[in-house]
Amino acid sequence: MRIGELARRAGVSPRALRYYEQQGLIVARRAANGYREYGEADLRLVIEVRALLAVGFTLEDARPFVACLRAGHESGGSCPDSVAVYRRKLAEIDDEIRTLLARRAEVAGQLSAACPGCVLRRREDS
Amino acid sequence: MRIGELARRAGVSPRALRYYEQQGLIVARRAANGYREYGEADLRLVIEVRALLAVGFTLEDARPFVACLRAGHESGGSCPDSVAVYRRKLAEIDDEIRTLLARRAEVAGQLSAACPGCVLRRREDS
DNA sequence: CTTGACCTTGACGCCGGTGTCAACGCCTAC
DNA sequence: GTAGGCGTTGACACCGGCGTCAAGGTCAAG
Fold this sequence. Notes:
The structure is a homodimer.
Chain A: H1 3-10, H2 14-22, E1 29-30, E2 36-37, H3 40-54, H4 59-70, H5 80-114
Antiparallel strand pairs in A: 1-2
Chain A binds a DNA duplex through residues 2-4, 13-16, 18-19, 23, 33-36, 53, 58-59.
């Protein structure tokens, strides 16, 4: 199938697919006229990438997953490199959550300091 | 004082101060030779802005705080517009935290699905 | 032959807060 | 005079994942 059909089926834009190829993920073979030709397996790759992007992964993060699928594994996350990325991502997310919680506390503190009584309506702000 | 001294005292770069001015915050008066001239009050403004940026506010968010300080209030957060920004920011932060928690759960779920036993070492992943 | 839907590559725009460089002016000290 | 340490404006670079437009090639249907 060509890029338009794959894009429709995967729910992405052709531009995104070309970008993925430019980044070295999901490289298509070319027809005689220069058009990109994709197979069914590529649809799975795109869906995997989109799922990863949706949960905050970068394209760089998605690389091992694509490689894992292309290596024939049923799940993109079942290879050691993918698992490593999973772990790293979990750590990053935890860091961000901690940062946000600290910020939230800081902002809430500033608010209650600048405008006493403004935050009181809630209970668990101690 | 001129821009270099203010920058040193506030712990920011002259470039940042020019940018704040370009954005309409902390506009300096000009000396005869065109140099920016700042007063002590401006130091407080810069410090306020930096404190807000440090907790995730944008320059746009910082605007009411600067206006509040320039209006003579002791705290930049004690004006109604500032309080509104505080509240909005708290809501935004809470949203981000919720999003991150959902992502964390999703990633942890995918990891445990792709690699059963990888996540088991911890207890509170239910 | 022409239309029109599809494809190609290349390149700029976006967002925010700067860093960095260019090319120049001001002012003091030697 | 001149060195050099300050200031000025203007403009490009960055990051990521595309959107969007430009200018053109391909191919099937009418």
